[in-house]
Amino acid sequence: MSKAKRGEVWIVDLGLAAKVRLCLVLSVPASDQERSLVTAVAHTTSPRGGRFEVAVRALFLKGGVFDAQNLVTIPDAKLIRCAGTLRPEDLAAIEGAVRAWLGL
């Protein structure tokens, strides 16, 4: 069972190329019978002004955006520490950007 909950922002080790960064958990917790994976959207402090980027203000976030084009599915072992939880309206805005990016 995953330790991360939907709407939480975690510090995540994304490997050498993507480095350690904040990611918003979008997936629901896995049960004990399922793979311990988490799907998340990465936060970047280098926005490009794209339509799939969502700026969120929270005490635990530096300036930047969540980039719906940067979705990752990772083992929950890559989660380092929970930084905080987004407000429901911020989560909804990011979900909307992800739906737009995926054409859902």
Major sheet: order of its strands?
Answer: 4-5-3-2-1-6
The percent range for helix content is 10-25%
Mean pLDDT: 92
Distance between the ends: 27 Å
CATH top-level class: Mainly Beta
Order of helices and strands: EEEEEEH
CATH architecture descriptor name: Roll
Number of strands: 6
Oligomer: single chain
Radius of gyration: 13 Å
Q: Beta fraction of the residues?
A: 35-45%
| Coarse morphology | globular
Query: Main β-sheet: number of strands, strand sense, barrel status?
Result: 6 strands, antiparallel
Instruction: Label the structural class.
Output: mainly beta
Number of domains: 1
Number of helices: 1
Please mark out the parts with pLDDT under 50 across 5 or more consecutive residues, or reply none.
none
Could you say what the CATH topology is called?
A: SH3 type barrels
What does this structure look like?
- It is a single chain.
- This protein has 104 residues and is mostly beta strands.
- It has a single domain, classed as SH3 type barrels (Roll).
- 14% of the residues lie in helices and 39% in strands.
- The protein contains 1 helix and 6 strands, in the order ββββββα.
- It has one helix at residues 88-102; strands at residues 8-13, 20-25, 37-44, 53-55, 65-75, 79-85.
- Strands 4-5-3-2-1-6 form a 6-stranded antiparallel sheet.
- β1 (8-13) and β2 form a beta hairpin.
- The protein is globular, with a radius of gyration of 13 Å.
- It starts with 7 loop residues before the first strand and ends with a helix.
- The model has no long low-confidence stretch (mean pLDDT 92).
